Amino acid sequence: MKIWIDITNAPHVRFFKDIIQYFKDQGEDLIITGRKFGDIHKLMNLYGHDFISVGKHGVSLIDKLKRSTERVNELADLVSSEKIDVALSKHSIELPRVSFGLGIPSLYVLDNEHAEAANKLTLPLCDRIISPRILDVWKLLSYGLDPNKLIRYNGTSETIHFKSFKYNENIFEDMGLNLPLSKTILMRPEPSLASYLDAECTQSVLTPIVDVLKAYANILVLPRFKQQAKIFEGIENVTLLEPPVDTSSIIKKSDLVIGAGGTMNRESAILQTPVISCYPGATLSVDQFYIDKNLMFRSNNVNEVVNTALSMLISNNLPKPLKFDDLFQLIVDNVYDMKK
């Protein structure tokens, strides 16, 4: 069986790493493509998975359109001569379009109902779509999704990130971090380059939060790109992390996570590290899933974030039992079923 997997964002590397390894172990023939964006290439090399680099990410709207169009052309040339049985992706813009055009069955993993442009370009073209149950189906239908193609599950896509996770309790020591204070906060800035968020690359909503909390805790910042890293350079008690790093162990070892994005916040909730979301866009349903379970606090008010952070740093909440559907098996089963 020949499977094509397209990876277009850094968190998707963690999402697919165990799926890729499983199909390899089963002797399946894989074609893995990944665009040049963020830390995709570094992470793929870290996990030891061979891949073909195709295209890159655009910044402005016109640039995004041109880069995506170029990438469709390149991917079409690459896969048209291959006898691919099933194509698999998570929020790839190009894979569903190429698969549809070439008559390749495609399985699409969806978890952002607010990515309007991406969803309109992809959902009507996919053969099957796997989505968290908490997502608003009516909103998805407005993008052209066929409800008969929708497969829903209890949980979020991040649950799959920890299938083979092994916690490194000595992660801070192994990284040689200088952490003079007793508490440590991991922070992740907003996805400023994403098409679904209107944000400024040279600013961050985390800046005023850092200005206060740096006196109470060591601050670890994991920026998304070099320009974003410059925002936090030279600040006392602030350490910039350079990918690739073992983010899962860092999250679990930290006393608190404050994130202006999404993936790392949800990973923190699953690992049950206290987490505050200050994502500057509309609340995502997948975030609301954990907010409803009291595993994530959300606010865009700086004073509220700071006060809640200080309270969380001294609390001793016990872990709560969590139950999710087996997303890994759901994906694997559907890939094989689509081959029939």
Summed up:
The protein is of the alpha/beta class and 340 residues long.
Description:
The chain is of the alpha/beta class and 340 residues long. The protein folds into two domains: 2-154 and 325-339, Glycogen Phosphorylase B (Rossmann fold, 3-Layer(aba) Sandwich); 171-314, Rossmann fold (3-Layer(aba) Sandwich). The chain is 38% helix and 17% strand. It is built from 14 helices and 13 strands. The strands form two sheets. The chain has a seven-stranded parallel sheet, sandwiched between helices. Helix 1 (10-25) packs parallel to helix 2, helix 3 (61-79) crosses helix 4 and helix 10 crosses helix 11 (263-271). The mean pLDDT is 91.
> What is the total tally of β strands?
13
Instruction: Tell me the span between the first and last alpha carbons.
Output: 11 Å
Q: Strand order of the main beta sheet, please? A: 3-2-1-4-5-6-7
Query: Helices and strands, in N-to-C order?
Result: EHEHEHEHEHEHEHEHEHEHEHEHEHH
**Mean pLDDT across residues:** 91
- Which percent bin holds the helix content? 25-40%
Q: Summarize the biggest pleated sheet.
A: 7 strands, parallel
InterPro entries: DUF354
Protein name: DUF354 domain-containing protein
Pfam families: DUF354
